[in-house]
Amino acid sequence: MNSVTTVQRRPRRYLRSRITRKLILDTAMQIFLLEGYTKTTIARISEQANVGYGTVYSHFKGKDDILNRILDHVLSDLYNLLGSQPELSRPREYYNFFQKVMQTLFLLVEEHRPIMNVYGEALVHSEDIAAYWEELLQKFRFVIGRVGVYRLHRELPGPGPAEQLHPECQHPQKRPGLCPPSGPLYLGNRQGKGE
Questions:
Q1: Are 178 and 142 within 8 A, CB to CB?
Q2: Coil, strand, or helix at residue 165?
Q3: φ, ψ for residue 172 (rounded to 5)?
Q4: 148-170 b/e with 16+ CB inside 10 Å = b?
Q5: Planar angle of CA 73, 191, 113, nearest 5 degrees
Q6: Mapping DSSP to helix (H, G, I), strand (E, B) and coil, where does residue 172 land?
Q7: Does residue 8 have a pLDDT over 90?
Q8: Is the predicted pLDDT of residue 80 greater than 80, yes or no?
């Protein structure tokens, strides 16, 4: 009977944690939109969400982490599209995919313009936000490059088989900027503590 009780508690605890995390994110988004990046504080978020100050920190590293998770949520449709990376064999297919990616990006930015403006403000004030944004841009460039440029390169006349390929991602080394500076691609939602 004791093991049944333990098993039943875990899902409730997990669910309660998820609900609290979502409450913090929703509250933070409202405060960011009302007060902007610089005036938003963890104390204000915890007070407005009616959770303890430490509870916010048990789910997130700080204000920047919360804003980055909000951005991840806003861009989740784009992440899903980029994560699908269909096999494109013709330049026209790549063009259509690229067009779909850009259209999705522009629609998401337009739909979420107020929070994107807050994020723009944060880019000026926070090195962590700026670093995360640059990381997202590098991954975006890498996916677009990996999906399209290499496949287009294979179909276009070039220097031939003597060309060296980058050992990690098999892109031509003569085309700089296609390989990310570190490790394999991951465009999923970055999870903080508590997930």
A1: yes
A2: strand
A3: -60, 130
A4: bbbbebeeeeeeeeeeeeeeeee
A5: 20
A6: strand
A7: no
A8: yes
Contacts of 3 (CB under 8 A, 6+ apart): none
Rounded to the nearest 10°, the torsion over CA 145, 79, 61, 65 is: 80
> Which residues, 6+ apart, have CB-to-CB distance to 49 below 8 Å?
23, 24, 27, 28, 56
DSSP state of 60: -
Q: What is the mean pLDDT of residues 122-131?
A: 96
Dig out the tokens for 155 from the structure.
Answer: 């179909």
Write out pLDDT tens, residues 10-59: 688 889 999 999 999 999 999 999 999 999 999 999 999 999 999 999 99
Q: How far is the C-alpha of 109 from the C-alpha of 102, rounded, in Å?
A: 11
Asked if 148 contacts 169 with a C-beta cutoff of 8 angstroms, the reply is no
The rounded distance, in Å, linking the Cα atoms of 179 and 183 is 9
Report residue 18 as tokens.
């998820």
Exposed (0-12), middle (13-18) or buried (19+): which is 39, by Cβ within 10 Å? exposed
* Alpha-carbon span 138 to 132, nearest angstrom: 10
